[in-house]
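Hey, I'm writing a tutorial for new members on how sequence and structure tokens pair up, and I'd like a real worked example in the thread rather than a made-up one. If someone can provide the structure for the chain below, I'll link this post from the tutorial.
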Amino acid sequence: MSKNNKRNKNQRKNEITRGIFTVLEKEPEKSFNYKQIAAKIGVVDSNDRNTLIKRLVELKEKKRILEEGRGSYKAVASTKTYHTGTVDITGRGNAYIVVEGLDDDVFVPFNKLKKAFHRDVVEVYIFPRRKGKKLEGEITKVISRDKTSFVGIVDMQKDFAFVRPTDYRMYTDIFVPKNKFSTAEDGDKVIVEINEWPDNADSPFGTITQVLGKPGEHNTEIHSILAQYGLPYEFPVEVDMFANTLDTSIKEEEIAKRRDLRETLTFTIDPKDAKDFDDALSFKILENGNYEIGIHIADVSHYLLPDTILEDEAYDRATSVYLVDRVVPMLPEVLSNNACSLRPNEEKYTFSAIFEIDEKAVIKNEWFGRTVINSDQRFAYEEAQHIIETGKGLIPLELSIREGAYTVGDEIVDATLTMDRLAKIMREKRMQQGAISFDKIEVRFNLNEKMEPEGVYFKESKDANKLIEEFMLLANRRVAQFIGKQKPVKTFVYRVHDEPDEDKLMALNGIISRFGHKLDFKDKKSISNSLNQLLEDVKGKKEQNLVDTLAIRSMSKAIYTVDNIGHYGLAFDYYTHFTSPIRRYPDVMVHRLLQHYLDGGETPKTEPYEIKCKHSSDMESLAANAERDSIKYMQIKFMEDHQDQEFVGVISGVTEWGLYVEIIENKCEGMVRIRDIKDDYYTFDEKEYAIVGEKNKKTYQLGDEVVVMVKSTDLIKRHLDFSLIGKNA
């Protein structure tokens, strides 16, 4: 028998075996004879029938199925091969089903997807595992769709159209009948809603619900990114109208209910282009020599009331979305940029955490409650940084966010310098307790009036940023601790971060060893210390961004929940988000619960809050994906104008189809496709994170420096392809 015939025979035997289990386990309470099974799996050939009978006997003898009566078979009751999981479509159209509780994901080939899309929740049947092989299965039904709206390009025909989705994980186009075109024209980028997918149809049927514009135009592409994740880019008219009718005036009767801090020195420090100032710091020296430092947060919950359309909209959005060229706010502008923004020389309602702190940054007293403030000054981070670096109040023209150079009063200089000193002590304490210092480089763009990128720069976190960060962390931690330590246990919203997965850390260790670094796995503290040392050691080196990214990926994801497990990355036993209610819905929940408990209220049920926490975590993830896609889009736009230029990059990823390369000078990442490397035939070595040439044995490995040029750019699909020139000598 030829090898091919033998392979085909084995393949058919495996298909029949899977068919047996599919039939028996779909109806585990029933028994079937070989004729019934043959009919259900389409066996008509006499050879196949003999194979079926033989396999039934073999499986019975191995006790993998039961024989009930002569020639009648049923599934073993304890064998559970149907599971519920989430679909992860690959770039090649196949899928892996992520099933909670299973160590391995279940591979499902394209022809067994049963019309499931990326991130759908499905029922999957798992085939009996063959020795040394990965888990495989087939989807038996779609339980729930993750989404039914997709962004795509219209391909117009005479009496119908197809919409070709731009998401590579969406493997089918969508048929649109003539009466469901909206105003779309051929080639437009649109949003299409899938209505049904008939059994006998190759494509699902849909309706074009919105025309986004012409592909490649700036606003079209930005709106496409938002639409891809189901994120809005404008407020419904009725929500805007409701917000504009709110009474945002400051009233004496409301001030009387609050702690009045209008005479206390107060100022804000924010990015120079910020429009919403949701936090301010106040500073006062007490008679005993200690400092009273207040962290004052916009009192959003004073205006955002339950059971209103404004509340519903804020909850649905759950977060503001920060794209490269705009912010899509959680709250309408009347609140986010006006009533709730702590602008200088304006009285504002705030919710405050006020601390008495000694010279060694030890907390002596704390107070939480509603306040009214009047901010004296507004500073950009660069201005505050200049005060910290010089110890003086003269802000030069090139740093000033005002009309020209100006001088800050001594009391603000002293306050800034004192808070900077205290912040450094608090940060040092955190690090000693095992906090991890992720100062990942953030890419930013200089945009012209047409929103075209003229340059790339990196956002650095300096002392002024860290000053604000430490006091926000202090407020968040102490609010969580204040509620979390009370008995009996009270329902509250926590921001938690689980310990990292050891397998991921081991994989990280394998990669960083190529650069001469290593982690210490002796105990929890050793891991934290060695991670911090790693992040410090790579600063300014070619591998910094790669190592930063991989280290973050090895961490668990921070989420919102009512179940407090602490925050690993910050080394806090209690942590929440209290400081940004303008842009985060969980902070609004925290404000409401805190005030409820300050008023002596009973603890509410946890279930509704856990549902809201889950929604907020999900929306945060979508917003982060949209932000990443907008940066990728702008990077590709930037690289369009540099197609004739050679760049030095670092190999940031290796796959069977090519190399991902990140350019060192601007952090733009693109792909060198393996088929485009012509000097040899290269194969993927998964263990070595490398591709290896068959003839010359040349290797391109994760972390290698290479020289590349732009081969092609695709703004619509957000693809950037490089040509490989060679290794950087």
